[in-house]
Amino acid sequence: MTTLLALDKVSKQYNREDLALKDISFTVKAGAFVSIIGPSGAGKSTLLRCINRMVEPSEGSIQFRGREITRLKRKDLREARTGIGMVFQHYNLVERLSVIENVLHGRLGYKNMLAGALGRYTEAEKRRAQEILHTLGLGEHLFKRCDQLSGGQKQRVGIARALVQEPGLLLCDEPIASLDPGSSKIIMDHLRSITSTMGISVLVNLHQVDAAINYSDIIIGVNRGRVVFNGPPKELTKERIHHIYGAEAGDLMLDTPDRRKGEAALAL
To answer: Which of 218, 167, 213 is nearest to 188 (CA)?
Structure first.
């Protein structure tokens, strides 16, 4: 697989005392599912926002499709962002608008200011939005106001809005943190399907270690703004989880390869 995203020594310093990220380096292959895990305040959200420059990195290189994101000016950055979809923990929907209207907002990056303000979308864009919503199980809710939806449904609208951009990369910032287990599984299943059926890379922040293990090709562990683990789920041992999470590790449901091996032995 080709490299889609490459970070090299990315750092973010808000002030002298607040170093959010330090020398972050990793790559994401095309069509890969990559999870970022770590304790609260580790810098996971800042990291995701540096990739699309919602937060400006202080140092380092971020290349997307071979293009240096950190050097782009306004017009070129806007163009590059059309290839990077974003899914938020708290959905970021316009609640009074319909599902289909919210999804079509994902096309605004392709519009000039007038067309965007007037909500002018082509028939092809409208058909594509409907296709995506049907794929995500929301075909019956196209014209329902978003404030009438459940949390899991709202998150699927957020995913659809990102997908209608036709991105190569989907950034998901704690997409299941506010959801119940059933809704969380639906969201994670859809995100995994996006990589396998659409070939879109997914980079997702998760606090749920078991979800990261079950869905990811690669897991990146972050602690205090630094990468302390980068590898496949099978290498994420209990000891490595403790290294990533520190004191928080004892509160996690540790569905690790070591734990599963031990449970299998006890069952014999």
So the answer is: 213
Q: Find, among 2, 3, 1, the residue nearest to 62 by Cα.
A: 3
Calpha distance 196→173 (Å, rounded): 20
Q: Which two tokens stand for residue 264?
A: 């299998």
Give 36-82 pLDDT, tens digit per residue.
Answer: 999 988 999 999 999 999 999 999 999 999 999 999 999 999 999 99
Of 165, 181, 216, which residue constitutes the final position of a domain? Answer: 165
**Helix spans in the chain (H):** 44-51, 74-81, 99-104, 113-118, 123-135, 151-163, 181-198, 209-215, 238-245, 257-267
Which contiguous run of DSSP H or E holds residue 10?
strand 3-13
Looking at the fold, whether 127 and 154 belong to one and the same domain comes out as yes
What are the tens digits of pLDDT across the range 156-184?
999 999 999 999 999 999 999 989 999 99
Compute CA distances 211 → 181, 240, 254, 265, whole Å: 11, 16, 10, 23
Domain containing 236: what range?
3-83+167-267
Give the domain-ending residue among 138, 165, 192. 165
| Residue 112 sits in the same domain as residue 43 | no
**Structural domain count, the chain:** 2
- What is the identity of the amino acid at 155? Q
User: Model pTM?
Assistant: 0.89
| pLDDT tens-digit map of 87-119 | 999 999 999 999 999 999 999 888 776 666 667
